[in-house]
Design a protein that fits this description.
Strand content of chain B: 15-25%
Helix content of chain A: 40-55%
Largest interface: A-B, 70 and 76 residues
Oligomer: heterodimer
Largest sheet of chain B: 6 strands, mixed
Structural class of chain B: alpha+beta
Radius of gyration of chain A: 24 Å
Shape of chain A: globular
Structural class of chain A: alpha+beta
Distance between the termini of chain B: 70 Å
Strand content of chain A: 15-25%
Number of helices of chain A: 17
Helix content of chain B: 40-55%
Chain lengths: 431, 519
């Protein structure tokens, strides 16, 4: 039996300016997929994340050299794609092109990143589109419950803090085009630029094209201050009343003192899988399958990175009739899990599930590029991905249960809910 | 345990995928070239019981995706049991006579008592003057019987069996005209799938039936009753179809869900889950000969069953425009639909090209004419919907208005854009871009094992040959501007159209003299 060549051995690392390129050739002919990111560090407490979102919105609305249609034409004529996104600390780009078109497409990408047009009309449109999104969120029980929970768990300066849709809307109205331009000038740059490319990438051509287009990109500011820990608040129950929403979204969550690089992370990652990570997890099996109280329930580790801590939360939708019973049953299962721990069988099952997902995730070029980029953003070597299966296999039941005990407290969960609260019966309404 | 060590490099993409990717991106590509490259990796066989298998060998990653396509959906239901196809899909995860139980005989006996008590409750409830005391007794006994039945269960054993062996992505979906079940396993665990999946359709046990009914009622509340889009869509389809069951909701009407019996579900299963009504696609690191041997061993046990006939109800021609307006406090939405033929109608590719030209990409007519002009936040044209194309269906438009824009105004703008095509057709650039994108879409779908499996099974069942996935490119390539103008003029008539919208109702104000108002 031959041993597969490790990912680390197949991946070359190159420097461009102050950035890094990870290049993993695969035998897909002609096509190159890549993921790119750079750190921007907006001042979250000052609402700069929203400014950043507007910048990202405007990146494909034309450059100083060509309007938005000309940009679209450059890409569409080559069957290429560039998608821009923003996750707070980073701006990311996902790209795909034929090998021979890579230089042109990377040049186009650099032009979009470095010289966006920032047309006033396009700015107004982008702002209107974002406003509409916040209006929709105001009507969404899920958005309202999640935002309310984030406000219980974090200070506004934490990247995981989410203003309410109404607050977002109010912030949006105050943002000017000048602010957007200034933010771009200050924060967009080659500091911590990372690129993961997979496919039929000729190293010298790909890296050379990147060097030519982004090698001299000045570093942006990476000074934006942000909180790294959750806010220590007494647990509370917060309701966001929403008329006519008879199905309620409920969130239970608590901040965790753990980061992605900490030893306790992988045990907690597997613990979450056991509690509510998939269909066969405890919450689904008990609250949905055995008790029939909900259609959807899950738990997740949320917003934990190597830069900051995050939280552990349970999300469940409940009808008015099942609201209190569903909450009580969910809280009881969370408490049981934290106090009694997982079993060895559960841990074995979830290890294989986690590793199965990992393998399937790397089976496509785009999946592999995404995994390489995320790994690099965390500051991990490529060899971490090769070691990952062994790291997962190496988590013991004691480590898992001790990590849960160390970090989670059944009495520390905040509870937020959004929707139309059940009308109290006359007896319940008595003082 | 998942095994990441394969005798083949996990990073080598197969020649067929490489060729598909290359040829599709290096335009123009001929469907026949793509098909020739692909076909060499495909093995097909049909078991004696009629179950058809399509195997695609892709050795580059040590995983295999399994996809079971059941040729049954909500169109196969009748009044009173709407949503039963979806209910059975949920029940298919509850295990079998050997998976999910500690004592099958005891469990079946307890389930029998549950069913008998449920029948008694129903009978009593249907009395003109139900005896409340007796009902209370029956309900108490019913709850106790359910508890007893649950005591025999090994809960979640089916899911756990898959998971314990590295299975991922296990799920299922029910549509109007199909139901599918799928997940991936490490390549060395393939036999587990053959064993579990055949058992699932050979010896299903509809355990926790009444609890799962509650789950589905929750699902309906979440997806339809508390969701403006879901509510409007249900109204839209029931208005567009007055005879054909495409007008019934996949999830079923609440009163039907509330009254299903286990017997009804079992009868539905017996009728629609015979081997001859199933098609299975397997894509990944699996040797076809080994797959065939396991298929014969495990799935050969399934009874053929009689292949159910198609839905015979034909939607009569629409005699005039149909409209639905819901007034409520939510985001205004607009839906429009025009009756058209099935996926097998010769004009179906024309509709696909038109949908693309109308709403795909920044250069599309809806984007430039509606989104850019801030009339709509989003506007999408669709040549039908997934699982809604085996029978004559709808060309479908969906739009979310921008703030301050009335859905009626947006409807007028969309109508004008469509009329423009009826009169002047489309440009050659638009036509070519749409054809290019069709090839790109095929490439995207072919990148993942699950995408390939789903598409091959769909084309095999609904069009009669999986090769039509590729042949369709030729049909799209042949579409001309004349075709588009002809089909647009034939189809996009007022008489043939259904329009549904949510208009934002003014907030409720206290009546004059209402004492509850602020003083």
């Amino acid at each position: 039996m031959s041993t597969p060549v490790s990912l680390a051995d197949r991946t070359e690392t190159y420097r461009i300016g102050s950035g890094r390129v990870l290049l993993t050739p695969t035998p897909v002919e002609h096509i190159v997929s890549w993921k790119l990111s750079f750190r921007t560090l907006p001042a979250f407490a000052e609402g700069e994340e929203l400014v950043q979102e507007l910048v990202v919105h405007l990146l494909d609305k034309g450059t100083r050299k060509r309007d938005r249609f000309a940009v679209a034409e450059v890409l569409e004529n080559r069957g290429a794609r560039l998608d821009f996104s923003n996750d707070g600390l980073h701006v990311r780009v996902s790209g795909r092109a034929l090998r021979d078109d890579v230089p042109d497409v990377l040049a186009m990408l650099a032009e979009q990143l470095r010289e966006p047009l920032f047309d006033a009309q396009e700015f107004d449109k982008a702002r209107a589109q974002l406003a509409a999104r916040f209006h929709r969120s105001m009507d969404s029980t899920s958005s309202q419950a999640a935002s309310a929970l984030s406000q219980r768990l974090y200070q506004p300066a934490h990247p995981n803090f989410t203003p309410s849709p109404a607050e977002h809307l109010a912030q949006l109205q105050t943002i000017t085009l000048e602010q957007v331009q200034a933010y771009h000038a200050a924060h967009f740059g080659g500091a911590d630029l990372l690129v993961a490319a997979v496919g039929d990438a000729d190293a010298s051509a790909f890296v050379g094209a990147l060097e030519r287009s982004l090698g001299d990109w000045p570093a942006g500011s990476t000074q934006g201050p942000f909180e790294t820990q959750g806010a220590p608040q007494a647990p509370a129950r917060v309701a966001v009343p929403m008329p006519d929403k008879t199905n309620l979204d409920v969130r239970l969550g608590q901040a965790l003192r753990v980061r992605r690089q900490d030893e306790d992370y992988l045990p907690l990652f597997l613990a979450n899988y056991i509690l509510g990570g998939n269909f066969s997890a405890r919450l689904m099996a008990i609250i949905r399958d055995e008790m029939g109280l909900t259609y959807g329930i899950r738990s997740s580790l949320n917003g934990i990175t190597t830069d900051h801590e995050g939280d552990w939360r349970v999300s469940v939708t409940l009808s008015q009739d099942n609201l209190e019973r569903g909450i009580e049953a969910t809280q009881a299962e969370v408490r049981r899990f934290i106090t009694e721990g997982a079993t060895a069988d559960e841990l074995d099952d979830k290890k294989t599930t986690a590793l199965g997902s990992f393998t399937v995730g790397m089976a496509t070029t785009r999946g592999l590029a995404a995994m390489l980029l995320r790994n690099a953003e965390r500051g991990f070597e490529v060899s971490y991905l090769d070691a990952y299966p062994d790291l997962i296999e190496g988590v013991t039941l004691d480590q898992l249960n001790e990590a849960v005990q160390r970090h989670a407290d059944p009495d520390a969960f905040h509870l937020t809910l959004a929707g139309q609260l059940p009308t109290p019966t006359p007896a319940e309404a008595q003082p | 345990m998942m095994n990441s060590r394969s005798t083949r490099s996990p990073w080598r993409l197969s020649g067929l995928l490489t060729m598909v990717l290359s040829l599709t991106m290096l335009l123009p590509a001929q469907a026949q070239d793509l098909l020739d490259a692909f076909e060499s990796s495909v093995t097909e066989f049909t078991l004696d019981n009629g179950l058809h298998f399509i195997i695609v060998e892709r050795p580059e990653a040590p995983v295999v995706t399994f996809y079971t396509y059941a040729d049954v959906g909500s169109v196969d239901e009748v009044k009173g049991i709407t949503g039963m196809a979806h209910m059975f899909e949920h029940m298919a995860f509850k295990g079998t006579t050997t998976v999910g139980t500690n004592d099958i005989d005891g469990e079946l006996a307890a389930m029998g008592r549950v069913d008998a008590l449920y029948t008694d409750i129903k009978r009593e409830e249907q009395q003109l003057n139900p005896d409340e005391a007796r009902l209370a007794e029956l309900r108490e006994a019913f709850a106790a019987a359910q508890e007893e039945a649950q005591s025999y269960m090994a809960s979640g054993e089916f899911d756990q069996a898959v998971e314990r062996n590295g299975g991922t992505g296990m799920n299922a979906s029910t549509f109007y005209d199909r139901t599918d079940y799928f997940y991936s396993l490490p390549a060395n665990k393939a036999e587990l799938w053959f064993s579990l999946e055949s058992d699932r359709f050979l010896n299903p046990v509809l355990r926790e039936f009444f609890i799962e009914r509650d789950v589905i009622m929750e699902e309906r509340r979440q997806r339809t009753e508390s969701n403006p889009f879901g509510r409007l869509f249900e109204e839209f389809l029931s208005t567009a179809f007055k005879a054909h069951p495409y007008g019934e909701p996949v999830i079923g009407h609440m009163s039907d869900i509330q009254s299903y019996t286990r017997d009804e579900a079992e009868a539905f299963f017996q009728k629609y889950y015979g081997a001859s009504n199933l098609t299975i696609a397997i894509v990944g690191a699996i040797e076809p000969a080994a797959a065939q041997e396991m298929a014969e061993t495990y799935f050969g046990r399934l009874p053929a069953g009689e292949k159910p006939g198609p839905v015979e109800t034909v939607e009569p021609p629409q005699l005039g425009e149909r409209r639905v307006i819901i007034e409520e406090q939510s985001q205004p939405l607009l839906m429009m639909g025009w009756h058209k033929g099935s996926v097998n109608h010769p004009d179906d590719p024309v509709f696909e090209i038109m949908a693309d030209i109308l709403s795909t990409g920044r250069t599309s007519r809806f984007y430039t004419g509606l989104v850019e002009e801030q009339k709509a936040l989003q506007a999408q044209a669709l040549n039908s919907l997934a699982g809604f194309n085996k029978y004559p269906n709808l060309f479908f438009l969906f739009a979310v208005t921008s703030q301050g824009v009335e859905p009626t105004a947006l409807e007028a703008d969309i109508t004008a854009l469509i009329d423009e095509i009826k009169v002047n057709g489309v440009t050659e650039d638009e036509l070519q871009r749409a054809k290019t994108r069709a090839r790109a879409n095929l490439v995207r779908e072919l990148q993942s094992n699950s995408g390939v499996a789903g598409q091959l099974a769909y084309y095999q069942v609904v069009t009669g040959d999986w090769r039509n996935l590729f042949n369709r490119l030729d049909a799209l390539e042949a579409v001309t501007n004349d075709d588009i103008m002809r089909v647009a003029n034939e189809t996009f008539t007022r008489r043939n159209r259904t329009v549904a919208m949510i208009q934002t109702a003014p907030p409720e104000m206290p009546a004059v003299g209402d004492a509850s108002g602020d003083q």
